Amino acid sequence: MDGREHQLIGFQPRRVMFSDSDGLAEAFRNWGVEALQLSRAEGENWTVAARLERLMFRATSASGRYRVRGGLPAGGIILQFDAGSDGPRHYGGLALDRGDVVVGFAGAQFDYVSPDHHRGMNFSLPEAVAAAALAQRAPGAEALMRSASLNVMSQCGPQVARICTLGAELFQLGSQPFGLQLTEHAYAGMVDALVSTLLMPWNRETATTFRVTHYQRLPIVRRVEEFMRSNLGEPVMLHDICGVARASERAVEYAFRDVYGVGAKQYLKLLRLNQVRHELKGPLADALTVKEIAQHCGFWHMGHFTTGYRQLFGETPQQTRGQQQEGPALLEPVAPAPTALDRFSGWPDLKSSRPGLFGK
Hints:
Elements: H1 3-9, E1 14-17, H2 21-27, E2 34-37, E3 46-52, E4 55-63, E5 66-71, E6 76-82, E7 89-91, E8 94-96, E9 101-105, E10 109-113, E11 117-126, H3 127-137, E12 151-154, H4 157-172, H5 180-203, E13 209-212, H6 218-230, H7 238-245, H8 249-260, H9 264-280, H10 290-296, H11 302-313, H12 317-320, E14 329-331, H13 337-345, H14 348-351
Antiparallel strand pairs: 1-3, 1-14, 2-5, 3-4, 4-11, 5-10, 6-9, 6-11, 7-8, 7-10, 9-12, 12-13
Helix pairs in contact: 4-5, 6-7
């Protein structure tokens, strides 16, 4: 048995549990993303990740609204599918439904806000693999990969359902003994399906469209957020925000509500609450009181601070204090893999409205 076959037979999905934005960021640390918790919801939070030859794939279940921002790693192409969320995803303020596929190439920046309960699948292929497949199947289609922005393919509902079904079956391989031939068949079938997805708008066989994500008010949000982060512990008033944004109060509010679902001052409060939690869980937490940490992050009314903290994180600051910064819990391997995917599709509120998403 050569080393390659041994590696493939050892294929095992890994499931990582997380409880807040710190855990989510740690779970996606290889992407170098930044996560911010915007609201809390009951439910499980985990990711299942695996590798099959040159294909990387991940399923995610997140309860609560999160803002995740970062850049896509060099050398790859990523396709993101909704696998049964309870509301639209937002990329840079644009609301996407379940039939939309997000396509990102190396270096593309993303600013994502999840719905209250997000279920999704990501697939990543090396640029060289995707470009060669596109060029051979539809000469000229490799030009699609020149974009440095996120792209959205709309009206892909049947293909999204197919990919999620194949992805679920792929994860189930992790609980079975299998050899090189089965692995190669699974890899070939998955790559063909992903490349076929990319070619849908190119071949114009359906009503699928391919567009670049763009929101004209996003620069307002970018300028204001940079100012907020630089002045997190300072008094910030609405006229300060409008001055930095170079826009009226109404334009600022519309921009923040479109991108993050909350107004500008509420978003500042969420930034501060997340920073307090980060400091309470950090190695220097014992050196300061909860009140001192809260005041350092811009809170002056301790009653309002404690109430907001409990609503966002489901516990008091005192309960958070002293917790070790252990990061997310790693469960490896998923045992058995089908259990994780049963839980992935088994939420009553989601399953009833989206039956058979994973072919069950």
